Amino acid sequence: MNTELPGIIATYLLTLVIAIPLGKYLAKVFAGEQVWTDFLKPIESGIFKLSGINPKEEMNWKQHMKALLSINMVWLVYGFFVLIYQDKLPLNPDGNPGMAPDLSFNTIISFVVNCNLQHYSGESGVSYLTQHFVLMFLQFVSCATGIAAAVVLFKAFRDKTSAKLGNFWDFFVKSITRLLLPLSLVIALILAFNGTPTSYEGKDQFISVQGDTVNVSRGPAAGFIAIKHLGTNGGGWFGVNSAHPLENPSYLTAMVELIAQVIIPIAMVIAFGYFIRRKKLAWMIFGVMTIGMLLLMIPTLISELGGSPAIEKMGISQATGAMEGKEMRFGPALSAYWSTVTTIISTGSVNSMHDSTMPLTGLWQLLGMMINSFYGGCGVGILNYFIYLIIAVFISGLMVGRTPEFLGHKVEAREIKIAALVTLLSPFLILSGTAIASYVFTNNGEAAWAVQPQNWLNNPGFHGFSEMLYEMTSSNANNGSGFEGLGDNNVFWNVATGFVLILGRFLPIIAPIAIAGLLGAKKYIPESAGTLKTDTVTFSLMTFVVILVLNALSYFPALALGPLAEYFTMLK
Amino acid sequence: MKTSNKLFEPALVQTALKQSFIKLDPRVMVRNPVMFTVEIGTLIMAFVTIYSFTHTDQGSPLYNFLIFLILLLTVLFANFAEAIAEARGKAQADSLRKTREETPAKVLLSNGTIEIRSSNLLKKGDVFVCEAGDTIPTDGEIIEGIATIDESAITGESAPVIRESGGDKSSVTGGTKVLSDQIKVQVSTQPGESFLDKMIALVEGASRQKTPNEIALTILLASFTLVFIIVCITLKPFADYANTPITIAALISLFVCLIPTTIGGLLSAIGIAGMDRALRANVITKSGKAVETAGDIDVLLLDKTGTITIGNRKATNFYPTAGVSLKNFTDACVLSSLADETPEGKSIVELAVIQDNHILSDAPEGAKFIKFTAETRSSGIDTPDGKRIRKGAFDSIRNIVLMAGNPFPMDIEAQVKVIASNGGTPLVVALNEKAFGVIELQDIIKPGISERFERLRKMGVKTVMVTGDNPLTAKFIAEKAGVDDFIAEAKPEDKMNYIKEEQALGKLVAMMGDGTNDAPALAQADVGVAMNSGTQAAKEAGNMVDLDNDPTKLIEIVEIGKQLLITRGTLTTFSIANDVAKYFAIVPALFIASIPALSHLNIMGLHSPESAILSAVIFNAIIIPFLIPLALKGVAYKPIGASALLRRNLFIYGLGGVIAPFIGIKLIDLFVGLFV
């Protein structure tokens, strides 16, 4: 207990120690400046030559988005068919069956969009071929897609006026060669040496002391788990994700996995500042994000370390905090830290079961995913933040009596239209998704699906509502974690969340890039005393308030019916 | 011009009240998406009220009727806000227009005869004649003659002004009065197309176009409205899941409370009031956009004369050269200036009278006056007794002296330098080709002008002085007055070039001008303010006309523009911030019956679910009329720097917007609780 808090503080500080220099390094890499990893250039040129790409060809924002969407489409089709026919393909030592089309639809979208919502279990649902050449491959490229998109945005604000925003393939390939591959290698090695399996053999067997035969799933998991965190993907090799003793064997590996998932989101913020030569702005954004994280994490720690009020009422001592659904080797503090980090960043890997956390913890987890930009996913975190920033710029610009401008570019009706549309999207997807699910549960309980709607929820009532809300929120945020009490492998959830996933991924990428592209091409207006500076504490506060108020207003009724109702009922 | 500054003139309120109902027409309402949804909600509540007479599942008819009534009031309040703003603007414009209605005009026909015609029938191109005592029937340009004109009906300034054909002061305004002489005037506008007519049309809504910022804000508000439509529609299946029946009244109340009705209802009133404030400052704007742009101005071009300094240069000192008495020198100066009609020349005579008690006498018989020409750059007098006095620029007089073979005294040369470095203009005087002394001319800087520039600097506006002076003098005055930059020895094209350069840097430039040669620059500037006394060309080129001909008016216009945006921004913030409290009123009320634990969210301790919902919608409705004065007057602009201003407004309207409804709703609930 007493080492628990220092444990998470050390984890966070180590994260910063790695992330900040990493951010400076990334700024240089994408600016094409000299860095020590330049020895990898021949590999990149080889890739470009092989694919007939000229990495010096400059693109405008529309060309960028065309490139991004078309390559994602290719992966989608490729992965879909591999998943369906995996039983007929090699590298399937456990003889796992092919996926049903609806599950395959859900799974492939989920991995393409960097979400990794898993309605299957890794041990029995997929082959090693799928794990490696579809899922792990997508974990790399989906993350690189996000990073490349963010760099396009950076590029729009680097020079005073620029319609040409670099080359998408250049950013994309460099994200992998200069960042994801080398770091994954290091993380995978650490995990492998600490007990995570790395073999291509099928299930292992042993006979327990009781005399039972136990089958233990394994596979080449260490590399998968490394990129799963580094790329904020979150999809586990095994069904129970990082709570599994082979996926996350010790406190040390837990720290490594925690650090791995936070470094790129923080590094991207720092890189933004260095790339556009406005370091102070980056630190202000970092500040807002960090305060946001703390405001979600501290109450989570309090409610988890405090234990369950229901158990307390029975007069049972809870010196170890709330332990239901948690691993003894991690304890409540690290699990609380993990649950916050994995929800604010769109990782969605878990080391404890979120379904079992306290009602208020569920509230903070949901809020973290709804906001989805306190650090946020690889690349996409800062893109999401940018939308809030534009809204804040607009309202505060008016409040100081000047047509709003961001970094010297006027924010006008067209940009606001796009930003407003995206602001609208999340409440629309989350709330209407949950509403349809609630409707089906209430009025169509007998539907003949793999899991009947009336049997969806392990805990009907307020908690059941939270389970449905969580699933939709997690899909929209491309997070991938679940309140696992929900029976989600059926045609309704597979298809519904499939659509939420794909809309919740690409529109929030296209919109900020479009805004940045439009702004970047506008005439640059030099700063004057009347200009509202965006790298000040006041403006950061404004952004924070905008984030908070927009989300609170959109989701308050839903949160009141879910976690809040559960919490207050439990108190009674 | 005198108009009442009272916000709610009884007559205007009456018109506005009538308009509030006329504006209920959905074809008009649809222009304002936020309030349009409220109108739809009101309509639904009307049906629910009727339904509840025969059914029991939607609450009592009285309760439904009350909600219907409050929603209707909400829409009416918003309409009233717009209507009163329109009425005020129109009243203001009407009072200007009244002065020119039904004035008989003496139209000069092509055959030379004069026909009396009503001013309403005058067409562009018609020529009319005005004599002393006549009221000028409509706007026009003098084509022949000179006259003194009383413009007090328009400007409020009682001193008559001189208008003459040709040059930059040839324009006359309808409603003003000719005091002396006779002029021929050509009508410059079609009936119904004068600036004032355009302005009235802008205020009246039909041709009022939304400004770019207003459009952007409307989009944002519409998207907030859509979010709340989603929130409210999805609440129905959520509630079904939780086995909680929600009445239509409660859902619609929640919706209306959440959508930004406060700013939605006041938005157009704010825009109209902005133009109205400009009009009250005696500035006619040709579009709402121009007012908004004024708030963004980065660079302000101001003419030195009349804006920064009082009128023209004045003589302030006589410096005779060594060996010449002051008396002799002054006499020579006066003699040479007697026929000099320039303001400088007159000021020399004035100074001599005041300072040296010089007794004025007429110029001697047979004296020959030498006029100033651009070549000689000097003027003077040749008297019959053989005195040749010349006064002029330093180098031209020195030329005259040296050419005649006389030495040029060192003390004069030194004095010239001292005067120039003090921002004055030295005027050297020579008698019979011998240097005689120097007259110092000085610009008098307007009192309080440097404070205004300081205020502008804090707003982020760079001020540029435009002057025909030499760079040295210009620099001195620029420093003394506190402007940021100056254009010396300015020609009309210099202004144009300066504007273009600044615009190329991405800046917005405002300027004021009156002459025809200002027209291109006025058109080029983002905000061009033409003086009403200026030529028709200048007035056509600019996007505002200043009736007072007051060059410092630009400063006011910038503030009006900023105020317009600030009022929108702060009321948006206030409106959104209000929602927090409304949620805490309505959400517990919706669910408390089936989820008693949610009473914890009833932090205001409201009496009952019904009273909570009623209180929230009542607060939502009455906050609109409460804020109408603020919308019409505008939120004050304080030049304290953008960040400080944001902090201030965020505190007042953001935090205030969160807290105020908690108090307001609680108070209303205490009252409503007595009955429900």
TrEMBL record, chain A:
Q: Which GO terms describe its molecular function?
A: P-type potassium transmembrane transporter activity; potassium ion binding
Record keywords, A-Z: Cell membrane, Ion transport, Membrane, Potassium, Potassium transport, Transmembrane, Transmembrane helix, Transport
Q: Which Pfam families match?
A: KdpA
Record's InterPro entries?
A: KdpA
What topology does it adopt in the membrane? Multi-pass membrane protein
Q: Which domain of life is it from?
A: Bacteria
Cellular component annotations (GO), alphabetically ordered: plasma membrane
Asked whether the keyword rRNA-binding is assigned, the reply is no
Which residue spans traverse the membrane? 6-27, 67-85, 133-154, 175-193, 251-274, 281-302, 374-398, 418-441, 491-519, 539-562
Give compartment(s).
Cell membrane
Q: How does it assemble?
A: The system is composed of three essential subunits: KdpA, KdpB and KdpC.
Q: Which family does it belong to?
A: Belongs to the KdpA family.
Q: What does this protein do?
A: Part of the high-affinity ATP-driven potassium transport (or Kdp) system, which catalyzes the hydrolysis of ATP coupled with the electrogenic transport of potassium into the cytoplasm. This subunit binds the extracellular potassium ions and delivers the ions to the membrane domain of KdpB through an intramembrane tunnel.
Q: What is this protein called?
A: Potassium-transporting ATPase potassium-binding subunit
Q: Which organism is it from?
A: Pedobacter nyackensis
Q: Specify the taxonomic lineage.
A: Bacteria, Pseudomonadati, Bacteroidota, Sphingobacteriia, Sphingobacteriales
TrEMBL record, chain B:
What Pfam families does this protein's entry cite? E1-E2_ATPase (PF00122), Hydrolase (PF00702)
Q: Which UniProt keywords apply?
A: ATP-binding, Cell membrane, Ion transport, Magnesium, Membrane, Metal-binding, Nucleotide-binding, Phosphoprotein, Potassium, Potassium transport, Translocase, Transmembrane, Transmembrane helix, Transport
Provide the protein's localization. Answer: Cell membrane; Membrane
Q: Where does Mg(2+) bind?
A: 514, 518
InterPro entries cross-referenced by the UniProt entry: ATPase_P-typ_cyto_dom_N (IPR023299), ATPase_P-typ_P_site (IPR018303), ATPase_P-typ_TM_dom_sf (IPR023298), ATPase_P-typ_transduc_dom_A_sf (IPR008250), ATPase_P-type_domA (IPR059000), HAD-like_sf (IPR036412), HAD_sf (IPR023214), P-type_ATPase_bsu_IA (IPR006391)
Topology in the lipid bilayer is annotated as:
Multi-pass membrane protein
Query: So what EC number does this one have?
Result: 7.2.2.6
Q: Which reaction does it catalyse?
A: K(+)(out) + ATP + H2O = K(+)(in) + ADP + phosphate + H(+)
- Residue stretches spanning the membrane: 33-53, 65-85, 215-236, 248-270, 583-606, 612-632, 652-675
The answer to keyword Cell wall biogenesis/degradation applying to this record is no
Name one molecular function that GO assigns to this entry: P-type potassium transmembrane transporter activity
Q: Record keywords: Protease included?
A: no
Query: What protein family is recorded?
Result: Belongs to the cation transport ATPase (P-type) (TC 3.A.3) family. Type IA subfamily.
Q: Its quaternary structure?
A: The system is composed of three essential subunits: KdpA, KdpB and KdpC.
User: What is the documented function of this protein?
Assistant: Part of the high-affinity ATP-driven potassium transport (or Kdp) system, which catalyzes the hydrolysis of ATP coupled with the electrogenic transport of potassium into the cytoplasm. This subunit is responsible for energy coupling to the transport system and for the release of the potassium ions to the cytoplasm.
Please give the name of this protein: Potassium-transporting ATPase ATP-binding subunit
The organism is Pedobacter nyackensis
